[in-house]
Amino acid sequence: MMVQEFSRRQLLWPGAAAAAGLVLGVSLSASGAEESNSKAKSKGKSKGKSKGKAKAEVKRCVVVWSEGTAPKEIYPNDINGAVAEGLKDLTGWEVVKANLSDPDQGLPDTLLKRADVLIWWGHKKHDQVKDELVDKIVKRVKEDGMGFISLHSSHFAKPNKKLMGTACSWGAYESDSITLKVTVKSPDHPIAKGVKPEFTIEHGERYSDPYVVPTPKAVVFEGVATLKDGKTDPSQQGLTWEIGKGKVFYFQPGHETNPVFFDPNIRKIMANAVQWAAPSR
């Protein structure tokens, strides 16, 4: 697995190598013919194994996208940097960081086409994302099965809203919470695999139910925010959908003034979500 910054140069991939021709000599001797056939079979098997090995080594690709507005004192390498760092131990995955300020808003066609999963964090610059790019993302999810993971304030991100087909609004947005206790609601769901049944994180912002979206296929996580005045507010925290051929996961925690994406419990959820959302091969 490798974590890398995206650049245009990385998009230039070599073409497939030309197949080598194999010319077998013809022998009138039965033993010679057997020897030639044996060598040919041996070479064929070796060549087949080589091709199979090369195919097996092709890595999946997850792109972690961010608009770049998280405070540097909390996220020195932005939120996508923290999320990508948490995915570094995923075996067989290439992790690519992409930013709104990158060429093509971080998602040129060549990268988007090879992405198995796209993780999205946005907050203040939703309107700057081009509609043309949004359409391409939605098409990749619906028609090609690319997974899409929307984090926290990305409930209002253009790709998320277009995939949901609703306002994607919450009942309330308040900056009066201290902590968030996250509870596993669906322990048998793949995204919950190995996650503690309950854990608490620092979280200074809460979204209150209801969440205006289509009925989710699963609610994997619930939570209770503890407020500054001692009161509590329960709400949904992790929801899944299947849209067209693609899988979508929304995760409410992730306020940019809290170090949410450095928490090992959150990182476990992110890694599980990537593997769950990836299309079958």
List keywords for this structure.
281 residues, alpha/beta, Rossmann fold, 10-stranded mixed sheet, two-stranded antiparallel ribbon
Describe the structure.
By secondary structure, this protein is of the alpha/beta class. The protein has a domain at 60-169 and 237-277: 3-Layer(aba) Sandwich (Rossmann fold). It contains 6 helices and 12 strands. The protein has helices at 30-56, 78-86, 109-114, 131-144, 158-164, 264-277; strands spanning 2-5, 60-66, 93-99, 117-121, 147-151, 170-174, 177-184, 198-202, 206-211, 218-227, 232-243, 246-251. A 10-stranded mixed β-sheet has the order 1-3-2-4-5-12-11-10-7-8, sandwiched between helices. A two-stranded antiparallel ribbon has the order 6-9. Helix 2 links the parallel strand 2 (60-66) and strand 3 (93-99). Helix 4 (131-144) crosses helix 5 (158-164). It starts with a strand and ends with a helix. Residues 5-42 have low confidence and may be disordered.
Fold blueprint:
Layout lengths: L1 E4 L24 H27 L3 E7 L11 H9 L6 E7 L9 H6 L2 E5 L9 H14 L2 E5 L6 H7 L5 E5 L2 E8 L13 E5 L3 E6 L6 E10 L4 E12 L2 E6 L12 H14 L4
Parallel strand pairs: 1-3, 2-3, 2-4, 4-5, 5-12
Antiparallel strand pairs: 6-9, 7-8, 7-10, 10-11, 11-12
Brief description of this entry?
The chain is α/β, with parallel strands linked by helices and 281 residues long. The protein has helices at 30-56, 78-86, 109-114, 131-144, 158-164, 264-277, and strands spanning 2-5, 60-66, 93-99, 117-121, 147-151, 170-174, 177-184, 198-202, 206-211, 218-227, 232-243, 246-251. The protein has a domain at 60-169 and 237-277: Class I glutamine amidotransferase (GATase) domain (Rossmann fold, 3-Layer(aba) Sandwich), CATH 3.40.50.
